[in-house]
Amino acid sequence: MYINKAMVYGNLTRDPEMRSLPSGVQVCSFSLATNRVYNDRDGKRQENTDYHNIVVFGRQAETSAQYLKKGSSTFVEGRMQTRSWDKDGQKQYRTEIVADRVQFGPRPGGGEGGGAPTGGAKENPQDADQKGGGSAPEYPDEDINPEDIPF
Asked: What long-range pairs does 66-72 form, CB within 8 A, spacing at least 24?
């Protein structure tokens, strides 16, 4: 049995590039940087950065190109693949991760759906509750009759 599995979590080093194959399949490619922190023989803290080429196909390629940008945190799970081609008589190689799954990390500014409001004035907490932005769920004022529950 053979295993070819890659899992990386890092930050995009550039904006994703989207293109289409002649068959019409969408392809998105980007690069992730991962950091490794360790202590060397002398006990000094060292940091090493690795760069990974990522390729995504199909619907995930479209959503990756739409929502990811340079600096975004992302978890990628897939398989390693090395391609080769001839360029000016020289054999060229590129090792990349062909993604099976792409998960977007937390967005800068905190939370889901964007950061702080764009207006200059601060929002009234009561207004936030009325807009559904409060932390407690809203329940109807009338009582629920157990006879109305369909199960």
From this structure: 67/104, 68/12, 68/15, 68/16, 68/30, 68/104, 69/12, 69/15, 69/16, 70/12, 70/13, 70/14, 70/15, 71/11, 71/12, 71/108, 72/11, 72/12, 72/104, 72/105, 72/107
CA proximity to 102, closest of 57, 134, 137, 50: 57
pTM above 0.70, yes or no: no
Helices (H) and strands (E) in the chain, counts: 2, 6
Query: Cα separation of 26 and 102, whole Å?
Result: 15
When computed from its CA atoms, the radius of gyration of the chain, rounded to whole angstroms, is: 23
Question: How long, in residues, is the chain?
Answer: 151
User: Is the confidence at residue 84, as pLDDT, over 50?
Assistant: yes
Q: Say if residue 149's pLDDT is above 80.
A: no
Question: Residue 136 and residue 128: Cα distance in Å, rounded?
Answer: 11
What band does 136 get if pLDDT is binned at 50, 70 and 90? low
Architecture of the domain delimited by 1-107: Beta Barrel (2.40)
Angle, CA 27 vertex, CA 63 and CA 22 arms, to 5° = 135
